[in-house]
Write a structure and sequence with these properties.
With 386 residues, this protein is an alpha/beta fold. Helices cover 24% and strands 24% of the residues. The strands form four sheets. Strands 4, 5, 6, 9, 10, 17 and 18 form a seven-stranded mixed sheet that branches. A six-stranded parallel sheet has the order 13-12-11-14-15-16, sandwiched between helices. A three-stranded mixed sheet has the order 1-3-2, with no helix packed on it. β15, α9 and β16 form a beta-alpha-beta unit.
Length: 386
């Protein structure tokens, strides 16, 4: 059988540059490896999402064309990426999120600069780097104010652009952060999404202070394990939740002062008891409607509710009266600014914060990584190596 047929059903419209992929590729979703014939075209291995659905919609492809860096961009040889909840959301499909298939997921990029595009300065081939996962336009009013993380025309690696579930990815040179030799690629790959979100939430938006008390929902996940450690470094007390008793000791080892299991405990009552009836200063909630009512109730006067996820839905109702009467702040956020990622990396390089990695898997096992994350049996991050 010719390579161009591989295990495909019928004819195949060839992939073009993977950052312009939009052609229809109709292949058996039960297959895990697909081959394409590109003649002399240099290819790369990648995990390709060919439609919304379960992990079986991810296929390991041997010969996707390698992207070419455009003006101001570099080509990164990806050494490690990690799996985030947003990857599952994009894979499953969500109202308002449009994806052109075939698509390559993955916002976390840790690797080595392999090629420079036109106009790139200050970067050398062979440099070890970490990439900020947002691509800002550099022209909108918010970019002009020095807030590219809030860019009106923002793009997100693995959503609006092809991401790091591949051997190579192209990113703006301006997004690169030098990666110290003593920080492994696997640890670095946990930082751009989960680590940055936790840092931006607690330091940049929430302003968590020494002596304050933080409630973290789902603290055994990627964002949660970073949040516990960041809060302790800031001198705060931490109430962590997990639905698995087996993770209690692990969260305590990270520094959590108290660990609650929502399956067995009334979180609102427990928080009131632990705080002398006052409530907490800050709540970090990426779960959504399932936890929002309790998050709102347990805030003390002047408290801050930080929202950074929609795992259980997008809409809630709450009391405007209670919000102003108790001087509450309800703050939304996603990711963060590049300088915050640089600061977080410095903490890791100095040994002041330790990325928690549940396991490291080869790239071709991305479907297994998604199933693990969905199972809830993961503590920390699942990393994919290329």
């Amino acid at each position: 059988m010719p390579r161009s047929e591989g295990i495909l059903r019928g004819d195949v419209e060839r992939f073009h540059d993977p950052d312009q992929i939009g052609d229809r590729v109709d292949f058996d979703p039960r297959a895990c490896v697909v081959h394409f014939d590109f003649g002399a075209m240099r290819g790369m291995r990648a995990v390709v999402l060919h439609g919304h659905g379960g992990p079986e919609r991810l296929a390991f492809v041997e010969d996707v064309p390698r992207p070419e860096p455009e003006n101001g961009e570099v080509l990164i040889r990806v050494r490690a990426t990690s799996v985030n909840r947003v990857d599952l959301v994009v894979r499953e499909g969500y109202p308002g999120i449009e994806v052109r298939f075939p698509h390559i997921l993955g916002a976390d990029v840790a690797g080595v600069v392999e090629r420079l595009g036109p106009g790139v300065e200050g970067v050398r081939e062979g440099d070890r780097v970490l990439a900020w996962p947002l691509v800002a336009c550099g022209r909108c009013p918010l970019c002009a104010r020095g807030r590219p993380g809030l860019c009106v025309n923002w793009q997100y690696l693995g959503l609006h652009r092809h991401g790091a579930y591949a051997e190579h990815v192209r990113v703006p040179a301006s997004s690169l952060i030098p990666l110290p030799e003593d920080v492994p690629f696997e640890e670095a790959a946990t930082l751009p999404v989960a680590g940055l979100t936790a840092y931006h939430a607690l330091v940049g938006v929430g302003g968590l202070q020494r002596g304050e008390t933080l409630l973290v929902w789902g603290a055994s996940g990627g964002v949660g394990t970073f949040a516990v450690q960041i809060a302790k470094r800031l001198g705060a007390r931490v109430i962590a939740t997990t639905r698995a008793d087996g993770k209690r000791a692990q969260l305590e080892a990270l520094g959590a002062d108290w660990v609650l299991n929502p399956r067995r405990e009334d979180v609102e009552a427990a928080v009131r008891e632990l705080t002398g009836g006052l409530g907490v200063d800050v709540v970090l909630d990426y779960v959504g409607p399932a936890t929002f009512p309790t998050s709102f109730k347990v805030l003390r006067k002047g408290g801050r509710l930080l929202l950074c996820g929609i795992l259980t839905g997008r809409e809630v109702a709450f009391s405007i009266h209670q919000t102003y009467l108790r001087h509450l702040s309800v703050l939304g956020l996603y990711l963060g600014e590049k300088p915050e990622l640089e600061a977080l990396l410095r903490w890791v390089a100095a040994g002041e914060l330790r990325p928690v990695i549940d396991r490291v898997l080869p790239l071709r096992e991305a479907p297994r990584a998604h199933r693990l994350l969905e199972s809830g049996k993961v503590f920390g991050k699942v990393v994919l190596t290329c």
